Amino acid sequence: MSVRIKRVHPQSPAEDAGLTEGDILLLIGGEEVGDFMDMEMVLCGEPQVEVVYERGGEEFKSILSRLTTEGIFKPAGLEVDFSPRTCPNHCIFCFIDQNPPGLRSSIYFKDEDYRLSFTDGAYITLTNLTAEDKARIVSLKLSPLYVSVHTTDDHLRRYILGNPLAPPVLPALTELIEGGISLHAQVVVMPGINDGSILMDTLKDLANLQPGLFSIAVVPVGLTRWRVGLSEIAPIDSAKAGEILDIVEQFQAENLRLRGIRLAFPSDELFIKAKRIMPSGDYYQDFPQLEDGVGLWTDFRESFLKAVQRTKKKPGIKKVTVVTSVLAEPLLQEISGIIAEKWGIEVEVVAVSNQLYGEGVGVVGLLSGGDILSSLRGRELGEAVLLPAVAVNDEGRFIDDLTVSQLSEQLGVPMRVVPIVGRELVKALTNGNQGRGGFQPPL
After folding, report:
1. Which residues contact 354 (CB under 8 A, 6 or more apart)?
2. Rounded Cα–Cα distance for residues 35 and 23 (Å)
3. How far apart are CA 288 and CA 309, in angstroms?
4. What residues have CB less than 8 Å from 45, skipping those under 6 apart?
5. 31 confidence band (pLDDT: 50, 70, 90)
6. For residues 144 and 246, what is the distance between their CA atoms, to the nearest angstrom?
7. Each residue of 152-164: pLDDT tens digit?
8. How does 26-55 read in b/e, with b if 16+ C-beta sit within 10 Å?
9. Are 147 and 125 in contact (CB under 8 A)?
10. 3-state percent breakdown (helix, strand, coil) of the chain, nearest 5
């Protein structure tokens, strides 16, 4: 086994070891390298390792030393080629099938890779795992993993996944848990398909997998205006969101009584759609599924309030514009009022309606640069515009390939990318050019 080096970071231990782009890694610490996971697991915690690599048909050896003279570990600074596995399913609700044309090419790729589940929290269905994969997961202790379950009724699950060969889900989950792997589960709820008593049965079946199963996220199906020629799925309205919340809360009460934890958590979107008050932080089980929009609102608000209380520094700005989604607007309006009262800063909250995907899609991460541009054009934007970091990739590109720099140029105002964490917003308002959440130059 071997793997090609895709990138070596400047001034990194990998560069110091003489490694360059295009080298073929053969052995690290005497172990064969088949993918980035092999590399990471060998490098993890090792101050130095011997690296055997191939360049131009010749084999070389070098020592990769990560320990500085101050006794601090440095990242290896090594990236290797990686091709994620593709998804074998044809889910009836698959969001990728509902994408409009003209987006970043990566948006259309359907991945299903247990390695990304471990490293990035990506959801997998377990439908493409081989016996060797399961053995490797257990051997490398790749835990926790994130699994899309949707229902524990195997016949219905095969229909939802569009995969008649999907193996039974409960035995697959049990096998991983018995191998020492912890799991987080997700249920995407679709009206008339896996809601009602089916949802309750699913939650109860999954509860039997405790303590190996850490949490269950219950989220509403996402439907776009590009859903043409696909299975009929009804949208989740306010009444249906309330029904789903009632089922989850009934299950939570029983699980609290039996095991002392809620286990299952509805997404923020369900509370917003049902027009119910968002829970406080102690409702959530250490916020295990923030990336799935579960408790994100509460975590942001509480983090923001704590940071405001601790911060003594007075901002040197008078007006900013904060971009958000329609769903998150009430929270940002509340936050802007606190900012105005605390520091006298005028904050204009602009809730961007998602015209690209359709107004039924209200999450922040799917805002396009074009929709943001249309919403901001002609406004008095103040000294800067704060953009949600989840709406852009690492290259500063929105989902429609417009860049933050292009947006800044067209509107004539600095654009600052801020993570959706309350304390990062406070940093952005008070720290100038310093810190991850500060007033960064346009990407």
Report:
1. 325, 326, 361, 362, 366, 367, 368, 371
2. 14
3. 25
4. none
5. confident
6. 28
7. 999 999 999 999 9
8. bbbbeeebeebbbbbbbbeeeeebebbbee
9. yes
10. 35, 20, 45
Q: Looking at the domain that runs over 299-430, which CATH code has it been given?
A: 3.40.50.2300
- Please report the pLDDT score of residue 356 as a whole number: 94
Rounded CA separation 438/419 (Å): 10
Domain boundaries defined on the chain: 3-80, 96-292, 299-430
Q: How confident is the model at residue 104 (pLDDT cuts 50, 70, 90)?
A: confident
| Rounded CA Rg of the chain | 24
pLDDT at 255: 97
Interatomic CA distance for residues 365 and 269, integer angstroms: 13
Rounded CA separation 35/48 (Å): 19
Q: What is the pLDDT of residue 386?
A: 93
Q: What pLDDT was estimated at residue 76?
A: 85
Buried b (16+ CB within 10 A) or exposed e, 323-353: bbbbbbbebbeebbeebeeebebebbbbbbe
Q: How many CB atoms lie within 10 A of CB 185?
A: 27
Strand pairing of 319-325 and 346-352? parallel
How confident is the model over 52-59, as a mean pLDDT?
93
CATH code reported for the domain at 96-292: 3.80.30.10
Q: List 65's β-bridge partners, or say none.
A: 48
Widest distance between CA atoms in the chain = 67
22: CB partners within 8 A, 6+ apart: 4, 5, 55
Report the number of secondary-structure helices (H) and strands (E) in the chain: 14, 15
**pTM of this prediction?**
0.88
**Cβ pair 160, 150 in contact under 8 A:** yes
Residue 53 in tokens: 């690599």
Query: 3-80: what CATH class?
Result: mainly beta
Helix H segments across 344-421?
A: 369-376, 404-411
Instruction: Round to whole Å and give the CA distance between 67 and 233.
Output: 55
